[in-house]
Amino acid sequence: MNDRHLPDEFDLIARYFVPLTKGFPGAFALGDDAAVLHPEPGRDIVATADTMVAGIHFFNSDPPAFIARKLLRVNLSDLAAMGARPRYYLLTLALPKDTDAEWVAAFAAGLAEDQEFYGITLAGGDTVATSGPATLTLAALGDVSAGKALRRSGAQKGDRIYVTGTLGDGALGLAVLQGGLAHLSKAHATHLIDRYHLPRPRLAIGRKLIDFAHAAIDISDGLIADLGHVATQSGVGATVEAARLPLSAAVTAALEKDSDLLVTVLGGGDDYELLFTIAQGKEEQLAALAEDEAVKITCIGRIEAMGGVRVLDAQGAEIPLKSTGFRHF
Amino acid sequence: MNDRHLPDEFDLIARYFVPLTKGFPGAFALGDDAAVLHPEPGRDIVATADTMVAGIHFFNSDPPAFIARKLLRVNLSDLAAMGARPRYYLLTLALPKDTDAEWVAAFAAGLAEDQEFYGITLAGGDTVATSGPATLTLAALGDVSAGKALRRSGAQKGDRIYVTGTLGDGALGLAVLQGGLAHLSKAHATHLIDRYHLPRPRLAIGRKLIDFAHAAIDISDGLIADLGHVATQSGVGATVEAARLPLSAAVTAALEKDSDLLVTVLGGGDDYELLFTIAQGKEEQLAALAEDEAVKITCIGRIEAMGGVRVLDAQGAEIPLKSTGFRHF
Fold first, then answer.
1. CA A68, B327, A47, B201: dihedral to nearest 10 degrees?
2. Among A104, A252, B285, B302, which lies 20 to 30 A Cα-Cα from A226?
3. B-chain residue closest to A1, CA distance
4. Mean pLDDT computed over A238-242
5. What is the DSSP string of A121-147?
6. Cβ contact (<8 Å) for B51 and A92?
7. Residue B198, number of CB atoms within 10 A of its CB
8. Residue of A nearest to B329 (CA)
């Protein structure tokens, strides 16, 4: 139970992590027992946490900056799904003792880049040594107007189901990294890998949805599983029309070669797009929102009174689905 | 990158962790993307996080309820050091795939017992599978009157240095678990092991100190290291009189047999007592506080204008110290 800490841990923290608290006096430059945040009056705090393990959620060979940015972004995606604004994060790293300073420097540089872009600041955390794989946990705190957080519940019969961006890129990016889809062009393969490495949390869209979406979720476990969460929490069913799914050129090319990959697109996860439901008749407002934010927003189906989640093909026949997608806390 | 989740994870969460959110509607029974907290007007949020790794911070053979309670309590000790009231926590567990339901059940039962006692509630988190040792992270959120959080900085020349409880029990408890101190009585050994397994976060004392302590910290890295943090952050020095250190009967017995263990008492850590500094002349108020809370509070030395941390023996000679104690984020 000795050697609980990394060699030079104190120096690494001072050099690479203290600068990430800049601009937030309540972090006390990581020099106190805890951080102190001043909530703004009239706003709720939104809190979420995710863990990523080397060899399971990322490859040891992945660039450390990408690992850091994905760790931050998957949490930001959860904030986006609640309509929250990012504020602060706690970072806890369990790192192998042979982790070198270059790795830590690149990891911190990735955080620095993204926290500047997304407007979030390191508030505190912990670093420890581990005999196992690197295990990285980030807890993100955001805020939202009191009582206005978006929820998974609240979808109503007749609502239209929308998604941001395109689906399946992350899951097929993972397939490429695992040696699959060798027929794809270099450009398509690169696009998919990039989307796997770097989710685009839809924070601006999420914040604007708080005034008119009935329900929202971020697609991390896969479209079917996450739409299933919305349906279950709302006590409704859902129908998706496969022909309406927004697909990138790369995913379209992959599906043309192997239509069975549709299951991966529907269930593979790692999209980190928003799925939300809205009363019909709001198409114009949504089109304006999509244009303002320069993000594609696509209607993919509708909420039904009951019946679980069904996916229909172009002829209206139900596509049989294995239960796919990852379940989490 | 598949098998990112534990077998039956969803069932384990529903069965063992959802009940820990009871009484907190903002956790949404772990059924949404994030938790939503309503801060009380006029109060700051205090946030801290710690990670414990099997084989490093605890033994795989430790009772899971003790592991859970220690994980919670080390975070509560950080809240205590800021004078904060516990509110909510996020729990992220990376567990080996062969973790059985009994382990999870006992772990959750330990949390249930302590969260009831300390008035804190599970708000959210994540569970994932790992190929390595169990890696457990808890982020605790508390609150405190706005602007009143205790800090490590603020100690002033002439302040008296106080500690709660007794020192060295946790570090010598670890020594017993590692096969040392075989000469101790069964009762003494049991006492020390218990103190190692179960810190007593001094929350009530911490909250009452916000009106008159100049600086505070919880002793997790060891008395010398943590007093050193206070001295550094405050820009002062400190003198400790070894003869004044509050010691349990078990630690006294161990020191009688081997006086070299004083280094472990001073530097071993795992005390989770509060150390704080206060202007001289407050002895009566402190005595009343100690009586109210039924916790021993002992003056062990004083803050000096400069000079680092020195420990004097009963004759006033300086005891040479190796640099001991663990450093962390």
1. 160
2. A252
3. B56
4. 97
5. EEEEEEEEEESSS-EEEEEEEEEEETT
6. yes
7. 17
8. A126
Confidence of residue B2 (pLDDT cuts 50, 70, 90): very low
pLDDT in tens, B217-234: 999 999 999 999 999 999
Quick: pLDDT tens for A84-93: 999 999 999 9
**Residue limits of CATH 3.30.1330.10 in chain A:** 9-145
- Whether CATH 3.40.30.10 fits A9-145: no
Distances (CA, A) of B220 to A127, A211, B171, B200, B272: 14, 46, 10, 12, 5
B137–A17: do the CB atoms touch at under 8 Å?
no
pTM flag (> 0.90): yes
Q: Give CATH 3.90.650.10 domain extents, chain B.
A: 160-312
| Mean pLDDT of the A40-52 span | 97
| Inter-chain touch A137–B49, beta carbons under 8 Å | yes
Per the CB < 8 Å rule, is B1 touching A56? yes
Q: Give the pair of three-digit tokens for residue A308.
A: 């679980």
Query: Quick one: closest CA in A to B128, which residue?
Result: A51
**In this structure, what token pair is assigned to residue B217?**
């910290």
Contact: B47, A94; criterion CB under 8 Å? no
Fold of B160-312: Phosphoribosyl-aminoimidazole Synthetase; Chain A, domain 2 (3.90.650)
Residues 6+ apart with CB under 8 A from B235: B153
How many cross-chain Cβ pairs, A to B, lie less than 8 Å apart? 264
β-bridge partners, A142: A46, A86
